[in-house]
Amino acid sequence: METGNLGPPAPPLEHVRWIDEDGDERRAAPASAGAVPAIMEAYRSGGTPWFVVIAPDDRVVQDGFRPDAEELVQALRPLAA
Asked: How many CB atoms lie within 10 A of CB 63?
């Protein structure tokens, strides 16, 4: 079993961007001491690593520390059809 990085390295934090629930583009910014990153606040994650799967209809399919593979397959199978 191969472990470690399996793809290219993550981009520098200043290049990370996403679209929030209002359709606005957000970007990662250095947080002040004690601040919670916006993406963690938006998806109520409990820390890192955290796993969030969002369906194309904006429904959160899974949100947790450890993904449940069987539950994830069941949720994503209809989307692949």
From this structure: 15
- Considering the domain boundaries, does residue 3 fall inside one? no
Summarize pLDDT for 38-59 with one digit per residue, the tens.
777 776 766 666 788 888 888 8
Residues pairing with 18 in the sheet: 26
Residue 3 pLDDT: 47
Report yes or no on whether pTM surpasses 0.90.
no
Q: Is 5 exposed, middle or buried (0-12, 13-18, 19+ CB in 10 A)?
A: exposed
Query: Using CA atoms, how far apart are residues 2 and 78, in angstroms rounded to an integer?
Result: 30
Does any domain span residue 23?
yes
Contact 13, 27 (CB under 8 A): no
Helix (H, G, I), strand (E, B) or coil at 57: coil
